[in-house]
Amino acid sequence: MDYKSQKKLCTLENLKPSSTIVDVKTAYNKIFPRIYVERQSFRLEPNGRAVKEEDSLEVLNVKDGDRLYYKDLGPQIGWKTVYVIEYTSPLICYMLTYLRPSFLYGASAASQPYAHVVNIAAACFAGHFVKRILETIFVHRFSRPTMPLRNVFKNSFFYGGNAVMIGYFVNHPQYTPATFGNAQIYTGLAIFLFSEYGNFVSHCLLRDLRPPGSKVRKIPYPNSNPMSQMLQLSSCPHYTYELCSWTGFTIMTQTLTAVVFTLLGFYQMAEWAIDRHRKYRKEFKDYPKSRRALIPFLL
């Protein structure tokens, strides 16, 4: 049944109690060849949650003559492709404001020297997103192979738009360096570099929890790397370090646009972290009670 109109779409036959939702999707694809498996979502109730692919009809208590409700997820694209595109977008946008200031500020801007913090900021901004691209290709493992194609445009606009917003003011000919000079600049840089490494360590640790090709979920614990100890305090140490990275960048550049981007990032990461923290606590009865979702001791 269509989950919105509740009109009958088709009848799936030759399924057994042991058949999984993957089998259901395959059977649906045979009837509607253009609707590939990754595009399909099924639920037990029109407004219910999508059922897991590995669940069998027997486990879901779906019997002969029962209904499943179908939702079309729309055109899909691979997770890795999405992330590479959305991380390339801010990299290009920011570096255009840095390398081609005449595009934004006029021909005379190209001849004006940058303050040294502007060069440091460009290296940090570019380094962050190059790191994210490389992690996407070589580190991350995804539980699902695809995501909706529309997310590419939404995410790329968010990252690219913020990159232009930050780059416009940091690379502006009239940009004024931090109030407290080198002490503030290098403090922010130290926080940024420290947090970037912690973020990388966290990504590697979380990657190792899931064997290739599986959907195994485990309680993450620190390993021998000291940076992984953030897991003692945060359920999502990669988000915690990410937030610290942009806080360091904001301290270093002292621009309002960097503050805005950091706050937007905090809002989104807090939402993701709280959701993951809740799932951890629900799924694992022995989940460490000392951990918070994102900010140690607070949130």
Q: Any overview of this molecule?
A:
The protein has helices at 21-31, 79-99, 102-105, 116-138, 150-170, 181-208, 237-253, 256-283; strands at 40-43, 69-72, 76-78, 146-148. The chain is mainly alpha-helical. It has 2 domains: 21-74, Roll (Ubiquitin-like (UB roll)), CATH 3.10.20; 77-283, no CATH class. The strands form 2 sheets. The protein has a two-stranded antiparallel sheet. Strands 3-4 form a two-stranded antiparallel ribbon. The radius of gyration is 23 Å and the shape is globular.
Biggest sheet, spatial arrangement of strands: 1-2
Question: Number of folding domains?
Answer: 2
Most strands sheet = 2 strands, antiparallel
Structural class: mainly alpha
Task: Give me the secondary-structure topology.
Blueprint (H helix, E strand, L loop, with lengths): L20 H11 L8 E4 L25 E4 L3 E3 H21 L2 H4 L10 H23 L7 E3 L1 H21 L10 H28 L28 H17 L2 H28 L16
Antiparallel strand pairs: 1-2, 3-4
Helix pairs in contact: 2-4, 2-5, 4-6, 5-8, 6-7, 7-8
Offer a quick outline of the entry:
The chain is built from 8 helices and 4 strands; from the N terminus they run αβββαααβαααα. By secondary structure, it is mainly alpha-helical. The protein has 2 domains: 54 residues, Ubiquitin-like (UB roll), CATH 3.10.20.90; 207 residues, no CATH class.
